[in-house]
Amino acid sequence: MAWSRKSAMFASLAIALYLLGLVLRNQQLVTVAVVLLSFLTWAAFMSNHADVSSSGRRAEEERKNDGVQLNSIVALRKISSSRIFEDGEIEVTLRLQNKSNLPKIVEVRDRVPEVMRVKKGANYVLMELGPQRETTIRYTIETPLRGFYTIGPVCIRIQDAFGLFHNEREVNLYDDFLVFPK
Hints:
Layout: E1 2-3, H1 5-24, H2 27-46, E2 68-70, E3 73-79, E4 83-85, E5 88-98, E6 104-110, E7 117-121, E8 124-129, E9 134-143, E10 147-151, E11 154-159, E12 165-171, E13 175-180
Parallel strand pairs: 4-13
Antiparallel strand pairs: 1-12, 2-3, 3-5, 5-9, 6-8, 6-11, 7-9, 10-13, 11-12
Helix pairs in contact: 1-2
């Protein structure tokens, strides 16, 4: 679990208010500081995504419907073709499922080879994924050069409801494809 800028700012403000309250002997400043620190502590304990797990399996092993799981978020990617000619297009479909009963603020970035260009759609999205919900991200990439390429891993960042803490993990979900010359 990592602190966001917002949580670091709240912690700095609380410490500054606490010290200022002690120096000025102002109990109201000390009380506000203690309430802010208590809120941060409570938010840290309530962000229940600290136990992040991922699988190191290749995409061929993930063709079952379970996908790769990041705590309560499940990711599964499919590509339109594993063999294509130069200057062709591959459609990538990334399916995300929230298995928990709580909504999640999810930031997803699917890594694409550097020589490829995303032509349609986006391989990056920031969204709220409701409880027991599923969403699909579709994008198309151009394949300008021949060679063997890999799409992946998927970087998933889950934020708490207040935006104070986040947990980020690269999920080892890979799909390989081969680009033939024309």
